[in-house]
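Protein in question filed below.

…
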Amino acid sequence: MEFVQHSLNWCKGEIFEGKLSLFFGLMILLVGLSYFKWGSTVCAKAIIRPLIVVTLMAMGVGIYLIGTNSKRIVDYQSQYIDNPTEFVESEKNRTEDFISWYPKTQKIFFVLMVAGMLCLLLSHSAITRAIGIGLMLLSLYGFVLDHFSEERTGSYHKEIIEHLAE
């Protein structure tokens, strides 16, 4: 298999993850709209805005992943044809930079999760509790997205290193 196929597979995985993010955002939007239509309690009304924020963030990430990686597929093929060695080297540098961010994002999501729990546990205000639930949902989404992205990037980086060792 030519090396560029690994790059294209990585992009396709990112596009799939983007589609899942759009689906997740759509599901959260449906939940929010259900609370809007049928929710009659103070807490049901309060959860609508945090769910819309989570929806917008998830859908924004999904659109970004799909758009960016669809463009990369075309760019990668032409870059690889022009100069395969330079392409592999640039991908090595890019993935190394990318990999260094995973521990940082995991800490950010952890802090968001704890903040959400504190909002939920320490407040009796409906909006504060709803924000806490929204933060926990956003954090859970981030952890899942990051986990699979980190795994895919690690595999891709391993392929890069093996290719450079040849």
In short: The chain has one domain: 3-165. The mean pLDDT is 95.
